[in-house]
Automatic annotation (TrEMBL):
It comes from the Bacteria. GO terms for cellular component: plasma membrane. Belongs to the binding-protein-dependent transport system permease family. GO terms for biological process: glycine betaine transport; transmembrane transport. The chain crosses the membrane at residues 52-74, 81-101, 107-128, 164-190, 210-229. This is Binding-protein-dependent transport systems inner membrane component. It is a multi-pass membrane protein.
Amino acid sequence: MSTRLRRHLTTPAVIATLLALLYVWVHARPLDSIEQRTLNPTYITDAVTQHLWLTSVSTVLVLVLALGGGILLTRPALRRLAPLVTGLANIGQAAPAIGLLVLLSLWWGIGFGTAVMGMVAYSVLPVLRNTIVGIQQVDAPVVDAARGLGMGSSAVLFRVELPLAVPVILAGIRTALVFNVGVGTLATFVNAGGLGDMIVNGIKLQRTPVLVTGAVLVASLALLIDWLGSVVEDRFRTR
């Protein structure tokens, strides 16, 4: 078995082992009525689906805003604005996530939209920064050679700069995805659901199986998404 294949199989094996141990541990315990209601398959499936939906929507918005913004900020006309925009994105990431959600809820109220905007503000920086850095690090002689072959600005961007910057950009997207899974647990505080509901219910009701199940599911989801990102990143890097 090659080293790459062994590395790609390790994370799914760890996730499967973690979930199997959780299943055995929970079913070996005498659950009271509250724990049985919370740990039923329908409730868990709904919580995971809500969490994935929050993560997916916020990630799509991050990709649109950060990829588009990062490309524009590497063009000659807007290049001087790059430090200002990345500084503003830094503010969003430097602020505590729960504080950011509270401030957004004061302006827009609670709900799904507020949770998504908080997640976008918190995770836009890695993609924006890596897009700018990835394009800027393309060797100038390579770009000049492409222009010398008669390529226009769009052709240079899409056929030379972006393909060479893809590994760096993918690393930023992978980081943003893991951020989104973690910050998504705070969506429960603005009534947007997700796996944060299980964790908070476990704490409030002092039910350890509920708390542990929510935490393990969030960790497993983050590991799974990080693994998928690493597979895609590895594929593009080896081209």
